[in-house]
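Can you give me the bound-state structure? Components:
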Amino acid sequence: MPGSELFGAEERKEVMDVLETGIMFRYNHDQPRKGIWKAREFEKELADFVGAKYAHVVSSGSTAVATMMAACGVGTGDEVIVPAFTYIATIEGALFNGALPIFAEIDDTLCLSPEGIRAAITPKTKAVMLVQMCGAMARMDEIVALCKEHNLILMEDTAQALGASYKGKALGLYGAMGTYSFDFFKIITAGEGGGIVTNDEQLYRNADMYSDHGHDHIGDNRGMENHPVLGFNYRISELHAAVGLAQLRKINHLLQTNKKNKKVLKDALSKYPQITFRFLPDPEGDSATFLSFFMPTEELARTTAREFGKAGIGVNYWYDNNYHYIRNWEHLKEMKTLAKIPVELLGSRQDLKTLHLPQSDLIIGRLISIGIRVSWSEEDLQSIINKMDTILKEVLA
Ligand SMILES: Cc1ncc(COP(=O)(O)O)c(C=O)c1O
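Here's the bound-state model for the whole set.
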């Protein structure tokens, strides 16, 4: 979680700017806030960094996904194609807008595959929620073409891939809209926070309204202006925006250091012919937050991940964890929710209890990801390599 490793004087300064005025609300209070507008500044710098015409920041990556769904007009009665390897927020974002998530296969990019998407399309398919998993990209050319061919809205859940790009264009800008997360574990953190980017003015306005009870924010008095639609409170606070702003200013350093550290570990693992790596359609555009590789079998992957963990190497074996793969999402399979959404209307096309995604299982079962850290010294990296070598020589013997 690189961003949180670089927490320092810059974050404290931005937060103190807010605390000195005491204005933690992102709108109004023009006089006492003395020109301090952290959310606005964060949005401007995020748009510049990504190369988007518009950026809007909200309270989390999850509320960003929910806002994107609403802004794009995807909801009740619509099928949305999603991957089974993501964070549950992607799925909740679809469900709580009334849409039906339809699970499709991923490929060796760790993201939805073009063939998987094609196989999942029905006359009710309205959108594809492409999750750019573990810091890098899907097969973008094919997926963008497929969405055009079938007139589907492409939405990018880029929560894990701020700073990643494909052929020079930021992930998040390939779809109608894209979202980012600034939670504590991401490349930059605001503590909690999320971002939404788009080049479409109407979609931006929709997101801006929806995330603040439908207020249109036209004029200089939020509250007295129009509220053309209903929405909800997904606003970010000035305190969180202040932290996010300081972190965003460090992102180029974070990306460079990630790439350097990842290369050292990838080179070290490359000498094992049994190990293969996640396919990156554009390696230059990788944000390098993870080094993701495949072991020859599920059993070897599980053993290796366990031994790496015991040796103090920060790894994820996603197949067994509770968070990122459908295998352990019992709450979803049973459609258990406290919200009284009409679950009987959902889940009709795919029976989630019996749903089998053989290709995704094969990929995730053999996958290990090492979280790249920005604070590693050369000695730290060498020590990790030594530990990996000791373990791999035994495991792969
Ligand atoms: C793919 C994906 N989408 C959405 C989210 C939700 O972001 P947040 O934790 O900021 O709500 C996450 C968080 O891990 C994520 O990985």
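A couple of observations. The first helix runs from residue 2 to 5. The two ends are 32 Å apart (CA to CA).
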